[in-house]
Amino acid sequence: MKSVTEKIRLFHRKPSLNPLACREFETSAATTTNSAAALTDDELNQINAIIPRLCASNHLKEATSLISAALSTANPPLTSLSLSPFISTLALEPDLTLPMHLLNTLKHNPNTGNPLFLLPIAKMFVSSFFRQGCPRKAVKIFQWVSRPDFPGGVEDLEFYAALIDGFCRNWMVLDSLHVLRVMASENLVIGSEIKMWIYRGLLREARVREALELNAALGRGTPGSDGGTFGSKEVVDLLDQMIATWVD
Question: Which contiguous run of DSSP H or E holds residue 171?
Fold first, then answer.
């Protein structure tokens, strides 16, 4: 079985990244097991140098395997890897095959199957999808983290706020209501900005009555931080009614 270090050496031996090297890398990645040893700074630097080469040569599957293997070794800090350019490249793919492969691989690995790893990467994908004008892909990420088998649950207010902001900006108010319902049902603090985005989004849809009713229900919640209020059964019930009767 090849370690992450051996995979790095493989690419240094074959700098052209020819198909044979990529196939050998793919085979080695498939048989990799978790390593107890942390990656050295030199190994991290080498990985950060190799990933852009793989992306530039369209070997995204191999780049995904290398990132997955690196994250599975002794929980390196996410900031130690150049993830943002890699995530942005994956987000440009026409479908979600590789993004979901990465997320599911990390989800089912005992070292990375927790919100501390999964949510920051999910947020990177969501931000990239909105930035690249692909908001429908962000819906899939939201559905993925909302599954009952998502490890540890989701209580990341920034993640939900990014989704609601992006959906409202893209006239996807119904999707923003689905996110808001999750927040309300989990009794999370619904911040003042989120209330404003939802309110304005409903008004743009000419749903004045719903905007006023929801805004009033949110205002009656228990006060939280930064001008926000906690979710409540009243808000959940109102959102259920709005979602059930929504007609575009």
Answer: none
